Amino acid sequence: MKAKCFINVFFVFVLWAGIGFHLSAQWSIERIKEVNLPNVEFKLIEQIPAGDYTVPGQRSAMKDMPEFVRISLVSKPAPESHIRIEVWLPTHWNGRYLGAGNAGNGGGLPFGSLELGVRYGFAVATTDMGSWLGAGSMEHKPDRWTDFGYRASREMTVAAKALINAYYGRAPKYSYFFGSSTGGRQVLMHAQRYPDDYDGILCGSPASNSTHLHGSFLWIHQLFNEKPGTYLTQQQAEALTDAVMKKNAGKDGGHPDDQFLNDPRLASINPDELDFLSPDQKSIMKKIYKGPVNPITNEPFFTSIAMGSEYAKDIGIVSLQDTLSEILYLFFPFRWVLGAAFNALKFDFDKDFDRFNAILAPLFNATNPDLSPFKAKGGKMIMYAGASDPLTPFQDAVLYYDRVIDHFGSVEKVHDFFRFFLVPGLNHNNGGRGPCNIGQRISDPSQPAESNVFISLIRWVEEGIAPEKIIGSKWETPYSMPIYPYPTFSHLLPGREPGIVTNYQPVVHERGLVVVPAPRYVK
After folding, report:
1. Would you call 354 helix, strand, or coil by DSSP?
2. What residues have CB less than 8 Å from 53, skipping those under 6 apart?
């Protein structure tokens, strides 16, 4: 009789607990609707059941998704603003909030980052950076430039944290912001402007000196279009990289048979010695390797391309030759400011570039080396860049990191809160000839940190264990090697086989050694 009574009570308790959980979830959604966010309009609040889910308008389904709440918002902090924000809140929450950066000229929402975030238990948010109406809609719209530059990220962060608090009944224990390329600039800018918002920031391949980066694209485009018949073929670009490897591989700590450079800052090449280039092409490549300059003052305004990145397709120097209509996406800041008046081949890198920079650089360029407020609040940041990135040259990340070191006075003081990893052979965020797999994507935080830069950041923030190295690997091969925080590099021990982690030792290289823009182009 007592046992039967106990069983009945047990089932009543289970039933009550189950109902309570579902009622609690419903109440949580109701609390979301009561959140007061100035200038924000709720477009969708929807409980998504576990299983396959297809975002309306997207082609493919997200398979075997956990249960979550999807919230779509539009924020209008200024008269011309229209910032789309997505916040996804998993039922089984790991207590962390993750902001996901965007790419290119924004406009879309990176649903893949949202998917991975909720799969691993993060409350995750992202934004289209306010440019969803397309490049044309941004012409002569300074409110939207501000949104793209930094305000959209702030609007996303404030909204996400308020919704998390309402839904779960408490604030996140830890907050992270992850982004690469434009997203790398996005997260770096946030650390500089809003240092209290995030505990950890993962900054990949940052387009941080943004107006000058896009200026370099335009400058290279002009070089190849000054005279007919100077375009490089893809075969010539690949031959350039092969020539760079033949001359330099193994002289920077790597192995002579490596198809990537360990530290391209130490590499050199003389285009005059390459018989597969025409005289005009040799002249152009010498200019490109020296970096873009003001044609009147001869002052460099950005760093050079990375040696060993020439072979890349679609986003390398070969693509920058193409007709304007094919690569207009790389020139979007000029189109936004100049509108229909923008002529890629007539742009003046003396007078026009100064005017352009005066307008957009304060909004777009994440170049402030004073991260003291971020450090003071206990924030941790990891930055990585690809040593053969054909789109955002790693040298710009080196320049920024060196300026941070100079500001704080030593490498050690910066390593307390901010570490930079230069990944040999990595192209733009993913792919390449080297040990490029370092866990660039959102990952399960319960996995080992040694070979995952994202999880290394989490461990640093939550356990105080700074990453002394990241193990990089080549996809689908056993090849792996340690990658140390700059300015330390891996050197293969004499007589050892490459691609085995224990066969390398850390060696400190000289800082700098890259083309440095004139001071007026760094502010």
Report:
1. helix
2. 61, 62, 65
Q: Which residues contact 501 (CB under 8 A, 6 or more apart)?
A: 471, 480, 481, 482
Location of structure tokens 């050690």: 412
Please, how many CA atoms are within 13 Å of residue 227, restricted to the half-sphere of its CB? 9
Minimal CA–CA distance to 124: which of 382, 371, 403, 454? 454
For the entire predicted model, the pTM comes to: 0.94
Helices 210-224 & 279-290 angle (0-180, nearest 10): 170
**404, 442 Cβ separation under 8 angstroms:** no
**Which one-letter amino acid corresponds to residue 349?**
F
Are the beta carbons of 137 and 112 closer than 8 angstroms?
A: no
Strand partners, 470: 483
DSSP 429: S
**pLDDT for position 137:** 72
Bin 67: left if φ > 0, else alpha if -120 < ψ < 50, else beta: beta
Mean of the pLDDT values across residues 173-193? Answer: 98
What DSSP line would sit under 72-96, residue for residue? EEEE-SSTT--EEEEEEEESS--SE
Distance CA 97, CA 498 (A): 39
Question: In 3D, which of 504, 474, 485, 480 has the Cα closest to residue 421?
Answer: 485
- The residue ranges of every structural domain in the chain are 212-364+512-521
Residue 27 pLDDT grade (very low, low, confident, very high; cuts 50, 70, 90): low
Q: Helix 351-364 crosses helix 210-224 at what angle (to 10 degrees)?
A: 140
Which residues have CB under 8 Å from 100's CB, separation 6+? 110, 113, 114, 117, 124, 125, 126, 178, 179, 183, 442
Confidence of residue 355 (pLDDT cuts 50, 70, 90): very high
Section 271-279 average pLDDT = 98
Q: And the tokens for 293?
A: 């300059």
In the predicted structure, residue 147 carries a pLDDT above the cut 80: yes
Q: Report residue 19's pLDDT band, with 50, 70 and 90 as the boundaries.
A: very low
Per DSSP bridges, beta strands 62-65 and 504-508 are unpaired
- Two tokens, residue 480: 């792996």
Q: Taking a C-beta distance cutoff of 8 angstroms, is the pair 393, 303 a contact?
A: yes
Mean per-residue pLDDT of the chain = 92
CB neighbourhood size of 142 (10 A)? 15
Separation of alpha carbons 395 and 382, rounded Å: 16
pLDDT confidence of 26, banded at 50, 70, 90?
Answer: low
What does the DSSP 8-state code read for residue 43?
E
Residues 215/299, Cβ–Cβ less than 8 Å: no
